[in-house]
Design brief:
CATH architecture of the largest domain: 3-Layer(aba) Sandwich
CATH superfamily of the largest domain: Thiolase/Chalcone synthase
Number of strands: 18
Pfam family, one: HMG_CoA_synt_N
Oligomer: single chain
GO molecular function, one term: hydroxymethylglutaryl-CoA synthase activity
Protein name: Hydroxymethylglutaryl-CoA synthase
Helix content: 25-40%
Number of domains: 2
Family: Belongs to the thiolase-like superfamily. HMG-CoA synthase family.
Enzyme class: transferase
CATH class of the largest domain: Alpha Beta
Largest sheet: 10 strands, mixed
Length: about 400
C-alpha cells in the first residue's frame, strides 16, 4: 500500500517585518541577517493569531467536504501550544467541522513534532486504508526583543492530509532516527520565550544529520545521487546548507550542484516567513514543490527533521504522477502577495502585547485581522475562537454551538 501526502498547504499571518530594517535598527550589518543566516522577511502574528488559529487557517485552505468526512485522526505538532492539558487538535477539529468520530491529539518534541505525527499517521492508515489523517505543524517562534535569536523568529503553520494512494508524494523506504538528551534549545513551562545555546544547537543539528544520513544509507542502500533534492528543517535558511555541506563531497560535482541548487529553491518560502518550528521542514518541501517548475514526477526527495533536545530523522518521499495538479500554489502566491509590511516600532509594540496570564477576560478586535479563523478573546479562562466563514459568533473553547 502506498501512503503519503495527498494534500499540503500553509498559512502565515498577514504582516511581516523586513529583516534589512530590523538590522539597521539593531545596529547590525543587514548582510548578517540576509546573507549570514539567509532571512529576508519575518512573519509577525497579531494577538488574534496563535498556534491553533494558524493551524486551522492552513487546513481550511486545503480541505474539502470529503476530506472532513474521511479524516478520523487529527495530529497537531507544536511547541507553542496554548494549554497544558487540552490539545490544539481538538480546537482545530471543531473549527473546521471535521467528522466527530475522530481522534484529536497534540504531539510535542520541539520542531520534530509534525514528523512524529506523520509516522503515527502512516501506522493508522496502514491499519485503516480508507481513513485520512490531518497532520498539522504550527508555531510562533519567540526569543525576545534584541536577543541573539530575534532574527530567527517567525510564525506560521503547515497542514497535510496523509492518506493511502496519495496524489502529491508517497513515503518510500526506511527511516533513520536518533535521539539524545541535550540542552541546545528549550522553553520552560514558566516562559513564553525560548532559550537556546545557538552554537551548540548548530553543532548538534549537523551532528544529528550526519548520524541519521549514515544510518539511512546503510538501511536503504541509497546515496546522494539517488536524490533530486534534500529538504531540511530550517530554523534559518543557512542551517540546512551547513548540514548538506557536511556530506556533499560524497557525490559527483554535477550531483553536488543539483542538490545545492534545489536546496536554494527549497528555502524561498522559509526566508520570507521565518522560523515556524514544527512546520519548517514541510514549508521547505512546499517551497521546492511550488517554486521549482521543472521538478519531475517520480523524483525522490530526502527529508531531514530535527527537534532540539533532541531527535533527528531522515526519510524520503517520491513525487507522484501529476503531483503539481494537486498543489495550492495560487493560494500561496496570493497569501504572499497580500501581506502588509510593518515597521520595527510596530513589530516591537505587537511583540510586547500579550494575553492576560492572571485569568482576566479580554475581547480582541478581529476585524483588523483578515484571517478567516481568529482568536477573539478570553472568557472564564477559555480562549474564544471564531471561524468567520461559518458566521459563528464568539465561542467558548470546546463549545460547538
Amino acid at each position: 500500500m502506498e501512503i503519503g501526502i495527498d494534500k499540503i498547504g500553509f498559512y502565515a499571518p498577514h504582516m511581516y517585518l523586513d529583516m534589512n530594517k530590523l538590522a539597521v535598527e539593531r545596529n547590525v550589518e543587514p548582510e548578517k541577517f540576509t546573507i549570514g543566516i539567509g532571512q529576508e522577511k519575518m512573519a509577525i502574528a497579531p494577538i488574534t493569531q496563535d498556534s491553533v488559529t494558524l493551524a486551522a487557517n492552513a487546513a481550511l485552505n486545503i480541505l474539502d467536504e470529503e476530506d472532513k468526512e474521511k479524516i478520523d485522526f487529527v495530529l497537531f505538532g507544536t511547541e507553542t501550544g496554548i494549554d497544558h492539558s487540552k490539545s490544539g487538535a481538538v480546537y482545530v477539529h471543531r473549527l473546521l467541522g471535521i467528522n466527530p468520530n475522530a481522534r484529536a491529539v497534540e504531539v510535542k518534541q520541539a520542531c520534530y513534532g509534525a514528523t512524529a505525527a506523520i509516522q503515527m499517521a502512516k501506522g493508522h492508515i496502514a491499519l485503516n486504508p480508507e481513513s485520512k489523517v490531518l497532520v498539522l505543524g504550527s508555531d510562533i517562534a519567540r526569543y525576545g526583543l534584541k536577543t541573539g535569536g530575534e532574527a530567527t523568529q517567525g510564525a506560521g503553520a503547515v497542514a497535510m492530509v496523509i492518506s493511502a494512494e496519495p496524489r502529491v508524494m508517497r513515503f518510500e523506504g526506511p527511516s533513520a532516527f536518533y535521539s539524545d538528551d541535550i540542552m541546545d534549545f528549550w522553553r520552560p513551562v514558566y516562559s513564553d520565550k525560548a532559550m537556546v545555546d545557538g552554537k551548540f544547537s548548530n553543532e548538534q543539528y549537523i551532528s544529528f544529520f550526519t548520524k541519521v544520513w549514515k544510518q539511512y544509507k546503510e538501511k536503504a542502500g541509497l546515496s546522494l545521487e539517488d536524490f533530486e533534492a534534500i529538504c531540511f528543517h530550517l530554523p534559518y535558511t543557512k542551517m540546512g546548507k551547513k548540514a548538506l555541506r557536511a556530506v556533499i563531497e560524497e557525490a559527483s560535482q554535477s550531483v553536488q550542484e543539483r542538490l545545492m541548487d534545489n536546496y536554494q529553491v527549497s528555502t524561498e518560502y522559509n526566508r520570507n516567513v521565518g522560523n515556524i518550528y514544527t512546520g519548517s521542514l514541510y514549508l521547505s518541501l512546499l517551497s521546492l514543490l511550488e517554486e521549482k517548475e521543472d521538478l519531475a514526477d517520480g523524483s525522490l526527495i530526502g527529508l531531514f527533521s530535527y527537534g532540539s533536545g533532541a531527535v533527528g530523522e531522515f526519510f524520503a518521499g517520491r513525487l507522484q504522477p501529476n503531483y503539481r495538479d494537486h498543489l495550492f500554489t495560487e493560494k500561496h502566491d496570493e497569501l504572499f502577495g497580500t501581506r502588509k509590511e510593518i515597521s520595527v516600532e510596530e513589530y516591537e509594540n505587537m511583540f510586547e502585547e500579550t494575553l492576560p496570564s492572571d485569568g482576566s477576560s479580554i475581547e480582541l478586535d478581529i476585524d483588523a485581522d483578515p484571517a478567516p479563523i481568529c482568536l477573539s478573546g478570553i472568557k472564564e479562562h477559555s480562549r474564544q475562537y471564531v471561524n468567520k466563514q461559518r458566521d459563528v459568533s464568539t465561542l467558548s473553547g470546546g463549545d460547538s454551538r
